[in-house]
Amino acid sequence: MFDKRNSKRYQTPQLREKLAGEYVLGTQTSRVRRRMEALIKADPTWWVHIEQWQQHLSDLNPSSDLNASTNTLKKPSKRVWTNIANSTFRLGKREKSIRWWWLPTGMAFSLFVGIFLQPTLTQPPSDINIAEVRPASYLAMMSSDTQTNHFALVAYQGDKPGQSSLRMQKKPLHG
Q1: CA angle (106, 108, 111) in 5-degree steps
Q2: Contact assessment for residue 156 and residue 167, using Cβ atoms and an 8 Å cutoff
Q3: Which residues of 25-51 are buried (b: 16+ CB within 10 A; e: fewer)?
């Protein structure tokens, strides 16, 4: 898996420092990180550079030093926490920067859009004819003891003579 011929290019101190720093910071891609771990397994001298970077970073951030005691860390002042809260949540300045007019303006705009879009969205299509549904005037169920094919006669009375209709409905075969 690891090629000794290619490991010679990793012997320069500048490249070793750069790769060890990226390894400790965790900024390498997964492919480069796997290659770095293979280099570390093949050449344990990489640990010298990695430990130097870990020590350098622990000086900047004492809480990352595993050997440091939590009692030696200095607590930040109340002013620091106030500044963090103000910059995180924008307390104070944000309240002053809110414009009083944005809510009524937004509501008026949405009402204006709604009024002008409503007719186009709710207009029924003009090519649909709405039919009047009339109840049946007469219904007769036709059955016999000898026949299994039952049917119904349904009569509908029209408004004028000659508009009445008589329909026969058969029982479906599957039900």
Answers
A1: 110
A2: yes
A3: eeebeeeeeebbeebbeeeeebeebbe
pLDDT tens digits, residue range 62-83?
655 556 666 666 787 888 888 8
The string of pLDDT tens digits covering residues 102-149 is 888 889 999 989 888 887 777 666 666 666 677 777 788 888 788 777
Distance CA 67, CA 58 (A): 10
Any idea which residue has 């050997």 for tokens?
67
pTM: 0.36
At 66, give phi and psi (nearest 5°): -70, -25
DSSP 45-101: THHHHHHHHHHHHHHH-GGG-TTS-GGGSPPPPHHHHHHHHHHHH-TTHHHHH--TT
Q: Residue 114 has which token pair?
A: 């709604």
Strand order in the sheet with 138-142: 138-142, 151-156, 165-170
Amino acid sitting at position 94: R
φ/ψ of residue 153, rounded to 5:
-105, 125
What are the structure tokens assigned to 106, written together? 């937004």
